[in-house]
C-alpha cells in the first residue's frame, strides 16, 4: 500500500520560520488546513505547533478541529452555501462573505444559536473568483453594518487562486485604500485587512507589503516552503514536509512502443503508432502500487533523478528505471517529492496511508 509521510520536525521548522517573521511585523496569521482533508492525525500535528487560528473550506473539517481543540479560532474561507449556514455558525467563528442575502441568513442563525458570528468581506481585485466589486463596496458595507449578531471583522481578497493574478504591491495598496474609505465613511476601525496568502510572502520579506495588510492565511508555504513568484524554495524553509512512498510490484524489460492495434486506453489516453525504426527499443520498466485514483503523475517527482515517469492507469504507475544507478527489486519503495496539488489528491484518497516521520 502506498503511503504519504509528514515529517514532523520539518513542519515545525517551517512553522517557526513563518511565525517569527509574522510576529516581527505585527501580522496575525492562520494556517490553511484544507490540504489535510480533515485527516485527524495531521490536524493534531498542526494543533501541537501552538496554532491559534485555522482556516478551511470544508465545514466538516472545522467541526473536527473544534472537537480536537475548541479554543482554536476557525475560519471558513469561502462564501457559505445556504444549506451550510447552521453548521457554519456552529463550527466557524469567522466566514468569508460576498452576498448580503447570505449574511442575513448568518445573522438569523447566529441569533438562534445566541452567538456573534464574525465575517470578512471579500473584495474582487482582478482574479475573478469571489468578491464584492469595488464600486459597490461602500453600499454593501453599509447594508450589513447593523445586522444583529454579526461582527464585521475585516476586509480581504483572494489573488492567484483562479486567474493567476499576482498580489503586487499596487494591488495590496488598493486593498489598504478600501480600508481607509470604509473607516472614513462609517467612522469605524477595521481590525483585519486579510490580503496575504502564501503567494504574498515574497512581498512581505522584501518589506513591500503595505502596513495596513495585517492578516495572512498560509497553507502552501507552510507545507512546501515555496516562493510562488519564483517557484524556488524560500531560504530557511523545507520543501519536503510531505513525501510519497510507493512499492514496486513488477520489474520487467519491455518494448518502448505498444504492440497491436491502437485504440483509446481505459483512462482515455490515445497513443500514436511507432515507426518501424522504433521497433526493438526496450526499457526496464517498474510498476508501482499507486494510480490515478490517488494521484496525478504531473504533480510528483521521483527523488531518484534517473527515474522517468512513463504513465499511469487507475491503480498502477509505470516508471522507467533503465538509467538509475540503484539496483531496484520488487518490494522496494520509491520515494517522491510532491507538489501542492499532488498532496491534495493523495490526502483526499482513502487508499493512501497517512503516517508521521
UniProtKB/TrEMBL annotation:
Cofactor requirement: pyridoxal 5'-phosphate
Q: Does the keyword Isomerase apply?
A: yes
**One Pfam family from the record:** Ala_racemase_N
SUPFAM superfamilies listed in its UniProt record: PLP-binding barrel (SSF51419)
Instruction: Using the record's annotation, list all stretches that form the Alanine racemase N-terminal domain.
Output: 10-225
Output the Gene3D superfamilies linked to this UniProt entry.
Answer: Alanine racemase
Record organism: Flavobacterium frigidarium
Protein name from the UniProt record: Alanine/ornithine racemase family PLP-dependent enzyme
Q: Which key words tag this protein in UniProt?
A: Isomerase, Pyridoxal phosphate
Amino acid at each position: 500500500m502506498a503511503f504519504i509521510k509528514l515529517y514532523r520536525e520539518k513542519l515545525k521548522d517551517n512553522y517557526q520560520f513563518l511565525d517569527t517573521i509574522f510576529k516581527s511585523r505585527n501580522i496575525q496569521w492562520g494556517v490553511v488546513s484544507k490540504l489535510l482533508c480533515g485527516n485527524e492525525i495531521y490536524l493534531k500535528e498542526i494543533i501541537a505547533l501552538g496554532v491559534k487560528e485555522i482556516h478551511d473550506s470544508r465545514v466538516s473539517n472545522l467541526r473536527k478541529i473544534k472537537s480536537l481543540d475548541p479554543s482554536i479560532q476557525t475560519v471558513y474561507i469561502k462564501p457559505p452555501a445556504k444549506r451550510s449556514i447552521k453548521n457554519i455558525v456552529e463550527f466557524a467563528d469567522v466566514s468569508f462573505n460576498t452576498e448580503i442575502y447570505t449574511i442575513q441568513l448568518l445573522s438569523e442563525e447566529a441569533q438562534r444559536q445566541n452567538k456573534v458570528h464574525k465575517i470578512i468581506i471579500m473584495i474582487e481585485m482582478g482574479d475573478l473568483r469571489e468578491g464584492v466589486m469595488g464600486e459597490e463596496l461602500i453600499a454593501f458595507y453599509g447594508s450589513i453594518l447593523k445586522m444583529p449578531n454579526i461582527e464585521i471583522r475585516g476586509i480581504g481578497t483572494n489573488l492567484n487562486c483562479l486567474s493567476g493574478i499576482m498580489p503586487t504591491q499596487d494591488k495590496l495598496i488598493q486593498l489598504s485604500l478600501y480600508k481607509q474609505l470604509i473607516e472614513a465613511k462609517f467612522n469605524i476601525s477595521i481590525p483585519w485587512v486579510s490580503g496575504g496568502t502564501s503567494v504574498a510572502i515574497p512581498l512581505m520579506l522584501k518589506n513591500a507589503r503595505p502596513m495596513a495588510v495585517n492578516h495572512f492565511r498560509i497553507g502552501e508555504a507552510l507545507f512546501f516552503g515555496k516562493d510562488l513568484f519564483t517557484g524556488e524554495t524560500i531560504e530557511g524553509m523545507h520543501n519536503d514536509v510531505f513525501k510519497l512512498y510507493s512499492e514496486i510490484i513488477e520489474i520487467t524489460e519491455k518494448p518502448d512502443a505498444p504492440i497491436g492495434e491502437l485504440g483509446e486506453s481505459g483512462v482515455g489516453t490515445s497513443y500514436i503508432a511507432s515507426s518501424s525504426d522504433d521497433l526493438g527499443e526496450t526499457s526496464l520498466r517498474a510498476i508501482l502500487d499507486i494510480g490515478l485514483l490517488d494521484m496525478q503523475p504531473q504533480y510528483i517527482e521521483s527523488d531518484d533523478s534517473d527515474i522517468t515517469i512513463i504513465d499511469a492507469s487507475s491503480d498502477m504507475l509505470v516508471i522507467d528505471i533503465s538509467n538509475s544507478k540503484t539496483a531496484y527489486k520488487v518490494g522496494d519503495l520509491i520515494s517522491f517529492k510532491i507538489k501542492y496539488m499532488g498532496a491534495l489528491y493523495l490526502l483526499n484518497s482513502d487508499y493512501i496511508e497517512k503516517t508521521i516521520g
